[in-house]
Each structure stands twice: as C-alpha cells, then as structure tokens.
Amino acid sequence: MIARLRGNVLEKGPEDCVIDVHGVGYRVNLSTVSLGKLPADGQPVDLRIRTVVREDAFELFGFLTPAEDELFQLLNTVSRVGPRMALGVMSGMEVGELIAALSRGETARLAKIHGVGKKTAERLVLELKEKVRNLHSEGIARGTTPRAPVTSGNKADLVSALLNLGYKQPQAEKAADVVIERLGPDATFQALFREALKSLRSSP
What we know:
Elements: E1 4-12, E2 16-21, E3 24-29, H1 32-35, E4 44-54, E5 57-63, H2 66-75, H3 83-91, H4 95-103, H5 107-111, H6 117-128, H7 156-164, H8 169-183, H9 189-202
Antiparallel strand pairs: 1-2, 1-4, 2-3, 4-5
Helix pairs in contact: 2-3, 7-8, 7-9, 8-9
C-alpha cells in the first residue's frame, strides 16, 4: 500500500491533483481545503497517503498534515461515511474548525457542509464527539479557537486557492468578491470555493 508520496505537483483539479514521482504520475484525492494549500505546479510536495482498494477502483487520498490524516481515519469509522464522504466533510472546514464543531456538537453548522445534511451531521456528532477530543496532532484539540468564516475582509485563503489552480490574480479577486457577496459571511470555505470555480468556468 502507498503510504506517502514525495514529488512535484504536476497538475491540479477541483477535487484532486497529480503528483509526479520520478516520472510516474499519481492521481491523489484531496479536500478542497488542502488543494488550496498546495504549492504551484512544478513545486515539490510531501503528502501522507491513504490507499483505498475496491473491486472497481484503486484510489489514493492525500493529506498535508498528520491531523488531517487522523481525522480522515476517524470520519471513516462513522456508519455510512466512506472515504469520499469523509473528504467532503473535511472540505467544509479547516481541521481545527471541524474538530471543534464535532466536539461541541454543532450539528447545524456541520449540516451546512455540501453533501452532509442534518441526519449525517447528527450521526457524525453522535459517533465522534468524544473521539475527536483525543486528537492532539499539531495542538489542534481542546481549547482551540476555530477560524472565522471567510468574509470580504479575510478572503485571502479563497484567492490563494484559486491562484494555485492557475487563475490570474484579477480573476481570482473578482470571483472571490462575487461569491462572498452572494453566499454571505457564514458560508463555508468549501461552498465559496465551489461557487467561485463555477463562476470562473462559466465566464467567457
């Protein structure tokens, strides 16, 4: 099983990237939060990997930090939550925010993540509320103050994610302003990122 990849970023998409390791390209699924933090194409990157083998697929899921890796494993222990759903949940918030939301039982906030919904949010809290309190990776656990939602005043993360996908600064700035105004200050990074991509791809 592949447990780690160290190479150069070859290309990036909205849900995955290709890592060039000595001439071999590995397609790796990442959360939108992690994708936004990847270095530019051609730059080196070191990813922790979880390999998932099914009858019809061999998939790689990547993480930039031990905390992401640990949280992904925990999410996969929840009933009816598979690897892709787990990655979708992690796309909705930064790791520290997600751990805090789970430990505090913030089902309403979790339900706003794309593809989660009320029932899944309740199940996540029920099965993980106590477990996530034992996560200490990188100091992300008890007492951590979650990051504020992305707003027009702190849109840097969204713009950075779009720049990493190859969009120009003016395009990224404009798209960020538009979606933040449309979705409001309480929107998750994932929702803003998806809407920004839709906006940019529909532009002539």
